[in-house]
Amino acid sequence: MTNQTIEALGRLRLEGMIDPLEQQSRSSEFLTLGFDERLSHLVTAEISYRDERRMERLLRAAKLRSGASIESLDFRASRGLDRSQVLSLASANWVRNHDQVAVFGPTGVGKTYVACALGHAAIRQGHSALYLRYPRMLEELGIARGDSETGTSHECLVQGGGVDT
């Protein structure tokens, strides 16, 4: 394999194929595979690479609190979380149905953690999310409605259906 091929893959933005192609050229196990099987392996690697990059990009943009996940939620009775309801919300059907979820409760019960865990679950299913504390959300909503001149999120909120204008 030549550096020219590797450079061409990079120029075509097929970075996810570069390492597997180098692996194929070094490994004797791939020599027994036909062209279609080797190409299929490369295409699958590229898809995985892009899916991982997309997930990383969505997680960064969401600004979620780190470590929050549905799997790490504490469902002990003293916490007052309804396991079936939380798991139902984690399926992200509410996102697909264009519904909203509000998390309420007294200080210190883990509202932020639950909200971030739900956001993380939605991102793993290919949706985007954004964590905003309530005062910031009100500020963004005011910007989207035209009540403020300092914001940059107007288009995002209006297009996302987050504001009735």
From TrEMBL:
One of its GO terms (biological process) is DNA replication. GO terms for molecular function: ATP binding. Signal peptide: none annotated. Residues 9-152 form the IstB-like ATP-binding domain. It comes from the Bacteria. InterPro entries: IstB_ATP-bd (IPR002611), P-loop_NTPase (IPR027417). PANTHER family: ATP-BINDING PROTEIN RV3427C IN INSERTION SEQUENCE-RELATED, CHROMOSOMAL REPLICATION INITIATOR PROTEIN DNAA. This is Transposase. It comes from Ferrimicrobium acidiphilum DSM 19497. The lineage of its organism: Bacteria, Bacillati, Actinomycetota, Acidimicrobiia, Acidimicrobiales.
